[in-house]
Structures
1.
Amino acid sequence: MPVATLAAILGLSRATVQNRIDRLVHDGVITGFTVTLRREAEPDAVCAIMMIQVEGERTEPIYKALRGFPEAVAIHTTNGRWDFVVELRTPDLEAFDRVLRRIRELKGISSSETSLLLSSHRR
C-alpha cells in the first residue's frame, strides 16, 4: 500500500507515516518488503502443491535439495503422512513436468502426491 494511502487511512501526515516506517526498519521490526502479484498478472503460470514423504533420516538433505529448485516458491514441513508440502510454480506444463521428475528422483523420497492449483481465493 502506498505511504500516502496508509497515511490517509490512519488520519496522519505522509511524513509521519514514512518516519514511523523508517524507524521500524532501522529497529529491525520490519525486515523487508515484498511484492504480491495478482494471479491474473501471470496467467500462463502453472501452480501446484506437492506433498513429499521422506525415507528415514533424509529430511535435512531433501530440504537442502528442495531449496535449490527455483520453482519451489515455498517449502513447508508438516506432520502426518507427508514430511513436506512444496508450492511449485513454473511457466508451463513442460517445465512443470521436468521439475516434478527432478524432484521425484531425489534420493530419499519414498512417495509424493501433486495437485495442480486450478484457482485461488484470498480472504
2.
Amino acid sequence: MRAALRRFLRRLSLAVTCIAGAVIAGLWLTPYDPAAADFLDRLSPPTAQHWAGTDHLGRDIATRLLHGGLWSLGLSLTITAFGLVTGTLIGIIAAQSGRIGDFAIMRVTDSFFAFPELVAAVAVAGIFGPSTVNLVIALMIVSWMKFTRLARTLALTTSKQDFVTQARLNGLSQARILLVHILPNILPSILVLGTNSWSRTILAISGLSFLGFGVQPPQSEWGAMLLDGKPYMQSAPHLMIFPGLTVLISVLAINLAGDRLRDLLAPQSM
C-alpha cells in the first residue's frame, strides 16, 4: 500500500506541476492582455483568434481564464495549506495536552464550527470590505477546524498503539514521538481531507467573488468572470459557460484525486 501511495503522490505532484506549467506557459504564449479592452470586438463568440470568445469589454476570455487560474487555484491551495498545517498542529497539541488542555482547545474549535464556513467568510469580508486580502483572511479563519478534529482523533488513536508505547518505554521525548511516530501515521488521512478542502475552497473563492466579496475588477478570477457574464447569460452565454466549466473540471479533478488517494489508504473497503 505504501508503494502504491508513493506512486500516486508522485503522479499527483506531476499532474499538478503539469497543470501549473500549462497555465504559466499559456500566460507567456497568449498574445492578449487580460485587462485590455477592445470595444470593437466585444461579446464575440469563440473563433480561431479567440478560442473562448470575448467578454462585454472585448477582453479575451481564454487569457482571462489562465490568469484567473493563478488566483483561483493559487489562493485556494494557499488557504488549504494554511488550514492543514495549522489545524493538524492544533489537533496534535490537543491530543497530547491532557484532559484540561484538550477540553479547552476543542471547545474553542467547536465555537468556530457553530458558524457555517461561507457565512462566516461572508461576514468577515462584509465587515472589512471586499478585497482579495480580506477574502484570504476570511477563508483562513474558517479553514483549520476540520483538520483539528481529524488530527486530534487520529492522534489519540495512534498514541495508544504498541509502537508508540514502546517508543515511550525507550525514553524518546514527546516531541520526537509526535514527529517520528504519530505525525507520519496520521498524515495520509489528513491529505485526503486536504484534497476535499482544496476543492471546497475553490468553490468558496468563486462563490464569494461571484457575490462581490472576493477578487475585485479588473483582476480576472473565475467567480468574478461568472459575475461579469451574468447580465449577458442569454445573449452571450459563453461568458458564463467557459468559467463555469473551468471551475467544474478543476473541482472534479481534485475530488477524483482525493477519492483515489482514499482508496489507496483503505483498500480493504473496495
3.
Amino acid sequence: MASPSPLSLARQLLGILHRDGDRLRHIDAYLHGRHADPYMPPQADDEYRLLARRAVSNWMPLLVGTPAQALYVDGHRQGGGSGEASGPDSTTPEWEHWQASRLDARQAAIYRGALAYGHSFTVTERNQAGEVVTRGLSALKTAALFEDAANDDTPAAALTVTAWPQGEQPGEARLWDARREYAVTFLALNDEKSIRVQARRPHGAGECPVTRFSAYVDLEGRTLGVIEPMIALQDRINQTVFDLLLAQSYGSTKVRTVTGMAPPVQRNPETGEPVLDADGNPIPLRINHNSRRFLFAEDPDVRFGSLDETPLQGFIDSIDMSIRHLSALAQVPPHHLLGQIANLSAEALQAAEVALSRKIAEFRTSFGESWERVFRLAAELSGNASAAEDYRGEVVWRDMESRSLGQAADALGKLRTQLGIPERGLWRRVPGVTQTELEDWEQMREDDDSVAQLAGALTRATPEQQNDVQPVAA
C-alpha cells in the first residue's frame, strides 16, 4: 500500500490538534489555576465573586512537581557486546549529545509536560551550526501519528506548530515523516482547504526524528496525565473552600439582637422632626457598638440577645478529607500535601512513600525507553552506526531517595564485606553522587594505584643495606 502523501499527513495531524485542543487547554487552565467557578446563586454580587476567586486552591502543580522532581537522568550506560553494561562515562557519544543539548536543565520541562498533559515530545536534528541536538516540543502544539499508538515508539509522522494564525496571516508548522521535513502553512486547524505543504530537506535519519514521552498509555493508544483525573476532586475542594469563606465572612461572629426598642432616627436639627427616606420611613441612625460599649434600655420590656456564630470546623474537616482523597488517588503521600510530618519515624515515612516510589519507577521505565530512542537517533545523525543499533544501552537515573549518608555508608559497607560486591560497583549508589564525581573518584583511584606501583617498584629496585660491622674481640 502506498504511503500517505505529506498533504494527507498534515491534514491528519492538524486534525488531531483540533480534536484534542479543547481537552488539552482545559488541562492547561487547571494547571495554571484557571479553574471553574464554584456554584453561586444567580443573584450573586461582586463580593461573592471576589470570594469565589479567592477560593481557588490550586493543587495541580504539586501533583505534577512531586514525581517530576524525582526524575533526573544522571548518565548513560552503553550496552556491552559481551552482555555486560559499561559504567557511566561522560566521554560516550550519547552523553556528549546530552550535554550539547543542555538536557541537564531542559529534561524537567519534558517530564512536566508529559505528566501534565499525558504526553510530550522531543525532536532530534542538526542545528544551524551542524551539531546534533535534541529539544522538547509542547503537547499543545505537537501531534504524532502511529501505526500502533499503544506499542510503537517510532511515529510514522509528526507535526509541530511554530506560529499560530493571526487574522489573515497563516499559521506555520513543521512536518516530519520517515525521510523528509516539510514546511506547512494553514489558516485554521480544521480548514483542510487552506493547508499548504512544501518540501524542505531530508532530515538525515532513517525514521521520524520525533520521540514521544508518555506518562500513561493504554492499549487503545490513549495517553493520560496526572491532572485530568483529579479535576473533579479539585473542583470539590474549591467549592468547600468557597463555602468556608462565605461562612467565615458572613456568619463567623456573634450577632447582637435587641427587641422591644425602636432605634434612634435622624432628625432635622431645626424642626426636630424625623428625616424620612424616599418611601416615607424614618431613617435610623447608625449604632456604633463594639466590645467596649455597654447596652442598656429604660423600657423594662426590651430584651437583649445574640445569634450564635456558624461553626467552621465542619468545613475544615471536609477540606482535610478531600485533600486526603486527592492524596490517595494521586499516589502522593499525605504529608506532602498537608504538611503534617511531626512524630513520624523513618520507617513510617518510608511506608508512606511506597506508592509514590512505585509511581516514579513506572515513569522512569517509560521515559527511559524514550531517551534510549533519542540517543539512537542522535547516533544515527552523527554517523555512529554501532551506537545507532545499541538497544541494550540504558539511562542512569539519579537516586533521589531520602536517606542519610550514614545509613547508606553502613549498607554499602555490608554489601561489600558480606556479599563481596566490588567497591567500585557500589560507588554510584552513594546518595547524591554525580557522574562527574564518579569519574573524579576513578581518576583518583588510578592515580593512587600508580603511586603505589611506583613506590613498590622503587622498593624492589633498592637493595637492602647489609650490616658489615664485625664485633670487636674483648
4.
Amino acid sequence: MNKRKLALGNRNIVGARVTEARNQIGLKQKDLLARMQVAGVPISLPALSLLEGQKRPVSDIELKALSEILEVDVRWLLGQIAKP
C-alpha cells in the first residue's frame, strides 16, 4: 500500500474515510474505480485520488455510490456518527 505523499486538502470531509473503508475491505483504488463505474458513476482514477486526498469536492451521486460500495453509512463518511 502506498503512503500519501501530500497533505490532505480541505475540499471535502469524506476522502480520508473513503480511504479508510476501502483499505479495511482490501480494495485498491482501481477496484473501487471499477465498482463506481459499474454503478454508473463516471469517475477517473486521478479524480478518485483527488477525492481521497480531499483535493476535490464529492457529488451527492458519488457519495451515495461510495456508501453503497464500501458498505458504510453515509453519515459515517460525513463524520456524523462513529463507525458501527
